[in-house]
Amino acid sequence: MFSPRGPSLRELAVQALSSVERGYDLLAPKFDFTPFRTPDSILAATAGALSGLGPFGAGLDVCCGTGAGLSVLEPLCDRMTGVDFSAGMLAQARAARPGATLVRADARALPFTEGFDLAVSFGALGHFLPAERPALFDGVWRALRPGGLFALALGAPPPVISLAHWATVGFDLVMRVRNAVWRPPFVMYYRVSPRPAVTADLRAAGFTVEHRPGLLLARKLAHSEGS
Questions:
Q1: Could you tell me if 64 and 82 are in contact, meaning their C-beta atoms sit under 8 angstroms apart?
Q2: CA-CA 20 to 30 A from 97: which of 4, 31, 162, 183?
Q3: What pTM was estimated for this model as a whole?
């Protein structure tokens, strides 16, 4: 699962016993050599789905990490911005995408108002408990201009009979036990963001939502009041 250039078992254990922010600061230099990086196939599929929906002026990658998602924005937008709360991950993104504006901020309190035509996010929802999603989506809604588009990569859950299903069940169980007995918490769950619940939260934030394979396209209505 891991490249020889990826983290050691000891490094992963230290990261897992840290806070989310500190854990990603530690993991950042080797993150792109782990299976946690968004696969290129998902990035390419998202770019393909968005290519006919532009043009877009300014693009925002929410929870940009090391900048893989910025590769989707680069050919679609005149300007691109990435936001993340891990200084270590932003340092890697800065090296990979020197043309991007990078901002350190908590995605639950995004510091933008109607500055973007397109927002994307990849692999971040597992870091937000269901009660935190409204703040996240409200912030994205405020960051977009009227008519702006939020593309959220969200794959279908694996079949119950598959090994992947039981691997995600086991991972979430281990994380819940870890967070019950250890502080600070490390919020990362695979099964807290079912598509119906995410869709409902996006609509409550003021978006219309279109379902695509592996993707939700949420548009800010030009005359919506938001939330």
A1: yes
A2: 4
A3: 0.90
